[in-house]
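Researcher: Hi, I'm a grad student and pretty new to this. My advisor asked me to get structures for two proteins we've been looking at. I'm not sure of the right format, so I'll just paste the first sequence and hope you can take it from there.
Model: That works fine. Here's the first sequence with its structure tokens right after it:
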Amino acid sequence: MPSSSPSGWTKLGFPLQRRVTGNVFFGVGSENFSQIDQIGRFSAHTFGGGLRYQFAARQDITGYVARQTRTHGQIDTSLGLSYGIRF
């Protein structure tokens, strides 16, 4: 049955300019996704950062990049972009 071990995650945000904020983050964790007779466990370290630009009082655009290194030499890189409207 799948199980997981304790993990941790932290994010630090900071202002860069009047309408621009940045952040950096780091996380660790592990997971056992196998059945009783299988080997299927990995641990991972994730780190990355992002920028948020607020161009109107209730609108912003945010981008991020993250890189995850896992056991067995696996690497995953993620990029994201979002547009936010607040009501």
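Researcher: Oh nice, that was easy. Here's the second one.
Model: And its structure:
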Amino acid sequence: MTQKIAIAADHGGYTLKEDIKNFVFNDLNIEWIDLGAHSEESVDYPEYGFKIAEAIENGQADQGIIICGSGIGISIAANRSPSIRAALCTSKEMAELSRQHNNANVLALGARIISKETAMDCVQAFLTTEFEGGRHERRVAKLGGSQNA
């Protein structure tokens, strides 16, 4: 089954977004949609965090990748949706653990914080690592608001 991935960035993450589309997605069996921004012209990062959340909520995408200058603002915006578990990652290991233990469905990156090479490693790890389930399922269920999980 082909993964459907939505990708979005503000102006600060635009260049890294394009790099990810050109290098990573071409190597993996992934169908992707680009939700913007489509240039380095100044835009507001919350709009793109909200767009990723909406794409996942309505089934347009299975997972998402979001990018802004630090990764912080756009991840806060995406995480306002109860169905989103956006993880801001700065290493391959963080990306792997976000999937294995937290079943993160959105990877957040800071274009001004990490190198292009590290970003590519994070994306590759995020898209190829499975949720372990088991003891982590109860904890992830609590993230969705279930106190009795």
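Researcher: Is there anything I should tell my advisor about the second?
Model: You could mention this: DSSP finds six helices and five strands in the chain.
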